[in-house]
UniProtKB/TrEMBL annotation:
Binding site for a divalent metal cation: H31, D33, H64, D173
Origin: domain of life: Bacteria
UniProt keyword list: Carbohydrate metabolism, Cobalt, Isomerase, Manganese, Metal-binding, Zinc
Cofactor binding remark: Binds 1 divalent metal cation per subunit.
Protein name (Swiss-Prot/TrEMBL): Ribulose-phosphate 3-epimerase
Amino acid sequence: MYVAPSILSADFGNLDAEIKAICEAGCDLIHVDVMDGHFVPNLTIGPLVVKAVAKAATKPLDIHLMVQNNTFFVDLFLPLKPKFITFHIEEEKHPLRLIDHIRQNGVSPGIVLNPHTPISSLEYIIKEVDMVLLMSVNPGFGGQKFIPDVVEKIKLLRELIDKKNAKCLIEVDGGVNGLNAPDLEEAGADVLVAGNYIFSSNSYAEAIRAIKLEF
Ligand code: DX5
Ligand code: ZN
C-alpha cells in the first residue's frame, strides 16, 4: 500500500518544513491538489508554489487537477516532472488525446472519477492510464466525510482491470483514515491519499503507518 499525503491540510506558512517532515515520515508520494475555482468551488496553488514543493520533496509528486481547461494546466505542470498528473474525466472531451500528451512528455497519466461517475466510463480508457483515482468525497475541500460507496467501486474497477488485462494503480482520495484503510486495501486499492488524518495527527510517521496497516 502506498500513501500519498495531501498537502492541502499542511501548514502553508511552513510549507518547506512540512514537505520535508512528510517525506521523512515515510510517505511514498506527495499529493498536490490543484483547484481553479471553476471545476470546484475552491482555489489552491499553481506552478510557482508547486515548484517550491518539488524542491523540498524527496518523494515524487502526484498532481491531482480539479480544473476546467485541463490541457492548459497540464502544460503548466509538465515541466516540474511529477510522477503522475491526473485529471477528471467529467471535464475532458478528449481524454485519450490528453493521456497521450502527458505520456509523450515523460509523465504517468491518470484519470479521476467523481463519486457519482460510473466505472463503466473507463471501459475504453483503462488500458491507456497508469492510475485511476476514485474520489471518496466530492472534490473541493480537505477534511470531508468519507463516502462508503467507493468500496464497491474499487471492486468493480479491479474487475475491469482484470477483464481488460490493464496495468494501472487504483488510488482513493477523500476522508481516508486509519479506520477505513483496511477496507480500502481489502477491496483492492493500491494508493491511499490522506490529508486531514495525517496533518492533524501528532505523529506523521504513525499516521502513515496506520494507513499502511503497519503496526
Ligand atoms: C479533495 C482533495 C483531496 C483532499 C483529501 O478535493 O482532492 O486530496 O485534500 O483530504 P482529506 O484526506 O482531508 O479528505
Ligand atoms: Zn486530491
